[in-house]
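#structure-requests
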Amino acid sequence: MKALVTGVGTPTGNVAFFDGTTSLGSGNLGGTGVAVLNTTNLQVGTHLLTATFGVTSNWAASSSTDINEVIIPNPRDFTLAPNGSLTLRTEHHGSTVVTATPVGGLSDTVSLSCGALPIYVTCEIVPSQVSISNGTPQNVTVKIDTDAVLGYASVDWHLRVVVAVLLPCLFFGPSFDKRKLRLGVISFCLLAFLATGIVGCSGKYPSSTPPGTYSIVINGHGQSSGLDRTTILTLIVTPKETNDRVLRFKRALRSKTEGSPS
């Protein structure tokens, strides 16, 4: 913005610039009678701009007439916006939506990707590319998993099935007196349990994202325009539920195995 102060001689001092009643800053006349202010604070829309020269020992105060300044969007641009935050328990997965919207008549193909991720979080965007045009927004699905093993949340129901099958093997197995047969049944059941992938070789559950609030950057790149835009997806990870059934089963399995005669 530029303001010219005229009078007898060359005015000196500062000129204050306003957007309505909001101060935008000031510029010094610098002995030329012209004050300049560069600003990036004007958002899209109409602004009522004025310039005011304050009173000095040699000059009276004065103000400019009101000027309506209309700020329009970049003629070729796009925006990314998430559909709110995503809340997941650790060891679970879920999804949310991110919207790509063309601005100013842009037609382009936007490639989307996830930025740096919190520990043990995986992120997938489907589809990874969308075509935008005519101001029409396009949605993509952001899939998030908070566990080192993809789809670990499905273990919740799978575990119940495994326990239901294996418990009869351990506690209602063949009632033969042959010790080796009973030990063989127990060993087979233990092997089947480990083969399900629920626990690893160490007997511990896979690592998962600790509870907390995390920021995931979603990147968008316009293939034709070369424009790069980002948005922030807030991921809220809550504590997992303690699975007492699993703990009781493991204790029972250990007790049954240790109690069998060799």
